[in-house]
Design a protein that fits this description.
Blueprint: H1 5-11, H2 17-33, H3 35-44, H4 51-71, H5 81-108, H6 111-117, H7 121-131, H8 142-163, E1 168-170, H9 193-220, H10 224-246, H11 258-286, H12 288-293, H13 297-309, E2 314-315, H14 316-354
Antiparallel strand pairs: 1-2
Length: 376
């Protein structure tokens, strides 16, 4: 079974921490890129919008919980009523409301629109983190300007890929899946498009809030896999409670095809199990703005995979959007790096000033390990 989050990081000690973060976020975006198509396929087959997420989180919990129990015995603080309330609220915002809004919005619109609306998550996350003072933004310094400009570039690049095509610059002659039968994704005819758009906006707000709220919780409870396990557990209880009241048809709880089973396994094991554990680990390491800045990369990955695997044409808009996304990511990462250097210099200077001959019997605070920027 694949290792997740912190476990994977421990196995990669020879890789620099900064490289680990970039690898982890690229993996997360890659596994999540196909989720729009996977979920829409499941909805088109008639799977229940309440039963599906319940099963999805059951699979995720079964996958994460053993790793959390054995790998985080020493890192896991004592469980208190306060932590349980925080995990319950985190589950409601980040999983129950988030996935519920997304499924209802996707069912009433289209995968393209669902992917496009998620491009607003970095901007909303940045705004929330700045208002709550979880992410410091110094507009009078280069790092603050770089983070703001990088977020804008990433959102703009993903939006260009979605709304602007331009001339064809790449036309694959042999799609990789030309022998596979096509799957109809539907066009949401007969659905409530306005309701779908409102739900997708709610999904973006919930996802942003989830990313932002993870940072202060991880400071108090520094066990990423355990936090993920508890949130999945409470989300399961919440979905089962709602589904038990609304979904009275017993057939809705059964799998009617291998495709339905595959969709649930992919969303549960890959997206929720591996993907969200990676997200939690990255939030604890680099903060919510860094994690959300990678989200527009998903739109680029979907465009590339659709071109190579499905034989879809690649347009000039995709190239322009890709350039803006990469520039935006670079600016955010550079800004975080400069912010860390500034914090290190600020921490070292007072330590040197406070040192005196009378403290020879103690270690100077200069040699104490510096806290990472994400622990602000």
């Amino acid at each position: 079974m694949a290792e997740t989050g912190p476990a994977l990081a421990r196995r990669m000690r020879w890789v620099p921490d900064r490289a680990n973060l970039h690898i982890a976020m690229n993996v997360f975006q890659f596994v999540y890129a196909g989720n729009h198509v996977i979920l829409r396929t499941a909805l088109n087959m008639g799977i229940s919008k309440l039963v599906f997420p319940a099963y999805r989180n059951i699979i995720a919990l079964a996958m994460i919980a053993p790793f959390a129990y054995f790998l985080e015995k020493k890192d896991r603080p004592a469980l208190t009523a306060s932590f349980l309330v925080q995990f319950f609220l985190l589950a409601f915002v980040g999983i129950t409301a988030n996935q519920g809004f997304y499924l209802l919005g996707l069912d009433n619109t289209s995968p393209t629109l669902a992917s496009a609306t998620e491009n607003a998550v970095p901007a909303v996350t940045f705004l929330m983190a700045a208002i709550l003072r979880i992410e410091e933004v110094h507009l009078n310094r280069r790092d603050g300007k770089a983070k703001v400009l990088g977020t804008i570039c990433s959102v703009a690049g993903a939006s260009i890929i979605t709304i602007y095509k331009g001339p064809i610059i790449f036309r694959p002659s042999h799609p990789l899946n030309q022998s596979l039968p096509s799957i109809s994704l539907g066009d949401a005819e007969g659905k409530n498009w306005t309701l779908g758009c409102v739900c997708l906006i709610g999904h973006c707000i919930c996802w942003s809030g989830w990313i932002v709220l993870q940072a202060p919780i991880l400071k108090k409870y520094p066990a990423q896999l355990s936090v993920s396990s508890f949130t999945c557990f409470f989300a399961i209880l919440q979905f089962l409670a709602v589904a038990g009241l609304i979904e009275r048809n017993s057939q809705a709880w059964l799998f009617h095809s291998r495709t339905e089973l595959f969709c649930v396994l992919y969303s549960g094991a890959v997206v929720s199990g591996i993907g969200f554990s990676i997200q939690l680990w990255a939030v604890g390491k680099a903060g919510p703005v860094f994690v959300s800045a990678y989200l527009p990369l998903q739109t680029l990955l979907v465009a590339v995979m659709a071109s190579l695997a499905l034989g879809e044409r690649f347009y000039l808009g995709g190239v322009l959007g890709a350039v803006l996304i990469l520039v935006g990511l670079y600016l955010v990462v550079w800004g975080k790096s400069e912010e860390g250097k500034f914090a290190s210099r600020k921490a070292v200077i007072p330590s040197v000033a406070e040192s005196s001959p009378s403290t020879n019997n103690r270690k100077s605070s200069v040699f104490q390990p510096l806290l990472p920027t994400s622990s602000k």
